[in-house]
Amino acid sequence: MHRQNEIKVWDPLVRLFHWSLVAAFTITWLTEDEWMALHAYAGYVIGFLLLFRLIWGLLGSRHARFSDFVRSPASVGSYLKDLLRLRAERTLGHNPAGGAMIVALLITLLFTTLTGLLAYGATGAGPLAEPLFLNAAYGSELFEEIHEFLANFTLFLVLFHLLGVGFGSYLHGENLVRAMITGNKRA
Amino acid sequence: MSSNTICFFLLMVAAGSLQANDLEAVLKTYEANGAGPFSSQQGAEQWQRVVTQVAKGESRSCGDCHGADLKTPGRHAKTGKRIEPMAPSVNPKRLSDAKKIEKWFKRNCKWTWGRACTDQEKGDLLLYLRQH
To answer: pTM of the entire structure?
Structure first.
């Protein structure tokens, strides 16, 4: 399976998580307000994926763990400076900026999912409808607005994530997208 | 009163007057798309129209959820949940925000009539609702 001089960096569950999240997020984005049942199911999938990733960040393989890629804001800052000077060090797992992006994406997606559940619950649907909104009026403009803002912010983060992947691939002459598919990187 | 308070107050007034103009702006947009002139009578007829959705095997109308009296709260036909009154005279938030007008037309035309409303229909409905 490995090309010469390649080693396994991303374990199968990290890769499965990543591409499932891409698929589910794309579905939620496209079905938004058009196909609510499918939107909600894709949202549940995102919620479970996030829960899995939080656990896997503690128990997963070496480069899947938060301890491997969560760095101090100062080291993220100095890494970004190095990046702009085209002198950023190559890392096998997430680089400091990439690690910060993973944290930002996980947190934003978590709150997007949560507000989605709340907005859905306010219309009398989903798991929060009975415990939280039994006698409430129909719908919640507030939760919908926050949910929409967070979803847009997630997409904004995804664009920067892609920009970072492209830039890192260029800088170190490697295909980082392929690495997330095969799991392997140059040693 | 500090200058900050005055600034905040002026901003709120500006935001309020912008909201009041939202409905006019929405109607202007429909007209720019070739719809109009709008009629509240047409709007009333559409509001009361009972549409049979063959796919769902159900007949629906606006009043199924919003109730017969626009000045009192309605009840959602499926969930039984309370819906704030539609009449701007008792619920000033109604018809005051362009984005929300379009959002609810999009959802409710589909739910009630099984299709999107035309700009002409939306303009007629807005004129009808505005009277209350």
So the answer is: 0.84
